[in-house]
Amino acid sequence: MTSSTFSRARRALLACAIGLAATGLAHAQPAAPQGTPIRIAMIEGLSGPFANTGEAVFRNLVWATERVNARGGVRLPGGNRPLVIDRFDSKGQTEEALSGLRAAIDKDIRIITQGNSSAAAAGLIDALNKHNERDPSRQVLFLNYSAVDPILTNEKCSYWHFRFDAHANMRMTALMSVIGEDKDLRNVYLIGQDYSFGQAVLREARAQLAARRPDVRIVGDELHPMARIKDFAPYAAKIKASGAQAVLTGNWGNDLTLLVKAAREVGFEGTFYTFYGNALGAPAAIGDAGIGKVIAVADWFPNVPTRESEAFYQSFRQRFPNPADDYVHMRMQLMIEALAQAIERAGSVEAAAIAAQLEKVEVKLAGQTGRMRGADHQFQQTLAVAVMDRQGAPGVKFDVEGSGYGFRVIRQLAPQQAEQPHTCNMARP
């Protein structure tokens, strides 16, 4: 967070406290902490084709830190300290992400967070492992909110890396719990972005379809360049021509929005099974054609049918009333809550001390709970599957981004149901 953004955030604390108290997420709110800020570097694409996703993450992290600061900040032996987000633009490129890491370290920031690229996350993990071994007096911690290539908590697992999103295999398991019951489904088209995450999604899709629905035929299986396709009409035409009843994709950002929009325009009437079809323009792009046809998986949806969840979501919308800013993720809120808890229990802002507490953290917010699995640093939490419908339909109180379309929860998996085995053999300091 820049100094001007931090000032605006500080001014927003009182309003945030009032909103939180009204929703039952907080009680008596002490004055904002005045100690030296604990700075968190957000290394994310803030320009380029996926800039909207980076800005959406920033809003989530700002809101999460405001909540911590509104209740007095992080309690430490030397006095309470606020959390502050510093922005570093990776431009959606791994090399730029590594430059952001070096800049953050030069500013003596000991906690970084990133998510909107598994390739960048892998590069950051390698760089941090080397830095922390070479310079133990300035060790750095990496909190991952969205990079979901399974390898990051398996072969590439690191003591310094903690993932708070469900990885691709976990998300696929949740989607497959619905696909497995779609007895009318006979053929499916697989399409994804050509990088580590997109490749992992399609690999797992093939494996889980073979295990759970061997009767379903894969009529298309392709990867496309990431963030470089402006016109998905040729891909949409192939999908329609294949006779596919459904598309399964891990696409996100504009690569998803443009894909579903093109499919609508060529008249594809099948189902989209998606990882991220519930936000960032996708519902508005597909419109009425998506009712009952676009299915998404997430850790949480605004229409989760509980009073706590509804109050949580309404509080976010009060903080960010512009419909275009409607992108809230529970996992990012839980991540900051987990960090605050770990710092307080460590009584220190040193990376190794925080990591030791993060390994065993358990958090709860607005009815959503999660725990960190210490063996591989993979967060375990509830997953939900939801289907797109018109706002006002049963189970769809809230729409997405002012589109008039929302998502009705049709399946929830407890953490134990979503949990997956791991192959992590973690080296510990």
Summed over residues and divided by their number, the pLDDT gives a mean of 92
Q: What proportion strand?
A: 15-25%
What is the helix content? 25-40%
Determine the CATH superfamily of the largest domain: Response regulator
Quaternary organisation = single chain
What is the count of helical runs?
Answer: 13
Based on helices, strands and strand pairing, what is the structural class?
alpha/beta
Radius of gyration: 21 Å
CATH architecture of the largest domain: 3-Layer(aba) Sandwich
Task: Report how far the terminal alpha carbons are from each other.
Answer: 31 Å
Family: Belongs to the leucine-binding protein family.
Protein name: Branched-chain amino acid ABC transporter substrate-binding protein
Pfam families: Peripla_BP_6 (PF13458)
Domain Leucine-binding protein: 37-392
Give a written overview of the molecule:
The chain is of the alpha/beta class and 429 residues long. The protein has two domains: 3-166 and 306-381, Response regulator (Rossmann fold), CATH 3.40.50; 169-298 and 382-418, Response regulator (Rossmann fold). It has helices at residues 3-23, 51-70, 94-106, 118-134, 168-179, 196-212, 233-241, 254-265, 282-286, 307-319, 330-346, 351-358, 415-418, and strands spanning 38-44, 83-89, 111-114, 141-144, 161-163, 187-193, 217-224, 246-249, 271-274, 294-298, 362-365, 368-373, 378-381, 383-390, 405-413. Helix 5 (168-179) packs parallel to helix 6 (196-212). The longest helix is centred in the N-terminal third of the chain and has 21 residues, at 3-23. The radius of gyration is 21 Å and the shape is globular. The model is unreliable at 1-29 (pLDDT under 50). InterPro entries: BCAA_transport, Leu-bd, Peripla_BP_I. Belongs to the leucine-binding protein family.
